[in-house]
Amino acid sequence: MAEKTEDVNSIIFLVIDGVGDLPTPKTPLQAAKKPNIDKLADKGITGLLSPIKRGTVPGSDTSHLRLFGYDPEVFYPGRGPLEALGIGMHLNEGDIAFRANFATVKGGVIIDRRAGRIETGDGKKLEKYLSTRIEDVDIVYKHSVDHRGAVVFRGPGLGEFVSDTDPHATSTSVNKSVALDKTPQSEKAARILNKYTEYCARVLSEAAENKERENSGKLPANILLLRGAGRYRHVPPLDERFGIKGICIAGGALYRGVARYIGMDLVLLPSTEDDKILQERAYAAVKAAKDYDLVFVHVKGCDNAGHDGDFNKKREVIEKIDRLMIPIIAKSGASIIITGDHSTPVSRKEHSAHEVPILIYSKEERYDNVKKFDEISCMDGGLGHIRGKDIMPIMLNILKKSEKYGS
Ligand code: ZN
Ligand code: ZN
Q1: Which among 231, 258, 284 is the end of a domain?
Q2: What is the pTM of this model?
Q3: Which of 16, 245, 303, 304 has a CA that sits 20 to 30 A from residue 271's CA?
């Protein structure tokens, strides 16, 4: 980090998904060897962040919206539209979107929620059967990876408050969707959804590809389960609301979807997180920092390790980020923010409301006495305790794009 860098007036914002944890007796951040991140903490300013607010357990979607200045209470469209956007679907105002996944049913009972871990290529082949029209509603299915995809309903008078057909369990039947708010709009969407589920069961059981799967001893992908209904609406993009241009470098569909929803451009690198891809994300960030105000870089591995309850894996992901990404990013000349979207303590295997550490390294910021980036050290940081809604104003100040309040 000693060589001379050309300063660029932009921010590289690295979100380490689910990075926060509880000490057992150390947290993964405390246990990790991460000299490069700690150097940034030493030279920068740190603190603790409640992505939504104290005591609220953030979802990744709501948290990212909040970090980028979009109050989820106003702007959250539900998971479905974000996933659909994230896999590149086009959405119109009022469309209802769902997450979808192939599963296997036998005798009316779900025996595998991932259709025998169907490969992306096989899922893609089934895509052609699943777009149709029911009543006056056009339905589009797009496959993404593994057993996953998204479905969009486009038509008049549709409500989004419908229950999932996905029972989120095996050894049970597919759920019938019902209107959760009893409006005629949601009643209509639930009715179409149930008809669509029957349609999918029929065309998928007749599909030659599934017969082939069965002949070769694989489970057929003979049902599509839907969940996470939400209504898409256009929201004012980042440049309109804050006068900044943003770009997203993330693997997961959800993060790409959040980014597209708020008008960020995308860098499309593979969604895996092996060493090479992590480095490529860092190089892409440095390049993007020359043309964009805000470069959002996302790493998912820590959250996955947290959900798996795997302390060592979580520590290793942090060490990889430190070794493979930070030296590249640190030379960009951009301001650097590192934080998480929530804690995913390995002892809980799920998200929690515990604050996450945050660090800002910028010539447009102060520094404090904290020398390490972890949950405990950052308690003493100069930023104090901040909330997700504070992040965008802090970034605008760094970018010198804040407007004066008063005269
Ligand atoms: Zn997350
Ligand atoms: Zn998670």
Answers
A1: 231
A2: 0.93
A3: 245
Our count of domains for the chain comes to 2
**Ligand 2 center–CA 348 separation, angstroms:** 11
Flag whether 1 is in a domain: no
pLDDT tens readout for residues 30-45 = 999 999 999 999 999 9
* Ligand 2 mean position, distance from CA 188 (Å): 32
The mean pLDDT value of the chain amounts to 96
Residues 227, 132 share a domain: yes
Same-domain pairing of 227 and 247: no
**344 alpha carbon to ligand 1 midpoint, in Å?**
8
35, 118: one domain: no
Assess contact for 52 and 376: CB atoms under 8 A.
no
Alpha-carbon distance 279 to 281, whole Å? 5
Of the listed ligands, the closest to the CA of 61 is 1
Q: What percent of the chain has pLDDT over 70?
A: 99
Of the bound ligands, which one is closest to the alpha carbon of residue 351? 2
CA of 250 to the centre of ligand 1 (A): 12
Residue 351 CA, ligand 2 centroid: distance in Å: 6
Q: How far is CA 250 from CA 233, 268, 288, in A?
A: 23, 8, 13
Query: Are residues 212 and 137 part of one domain?
Result: yes
Helix, strand, or coil here: 295? Answer: strand
Query: Closest-lying ligand to the alpha carbon of 255?
Result: 1
CA of 323 to the centre of ligand 1 (A): 22
Q: What does the alpha-carbon distance between residue 156 and residue 273 come to, in Å, rounded to a whole number?
A: 41
- Provide CB contacts within 8 A for 13, sequence distance 6+: 67, 294, 295, 296, 297, 337, 395
pLDDT at 360: 98
Question: Domain residues for 91?
Answer: 83-231
Ligand nearest to the CA of 64: 1
| Ligand 1 centre distance from Cα of residue 15 (Å) | 9
Ligand nearest to the CA of 20: 1
Mind listing the pLDDT tens digit for each residue in 179-234? Answer: 999 999 999 999 999 999 999 999 999 999 999 999 999 999 999 999 999 999 99
Tell how far the Cα of 59 is from the centroid of ligand 1, in angstroms: 6
Helix (H) or strand (E) holding 317: helix 311-320
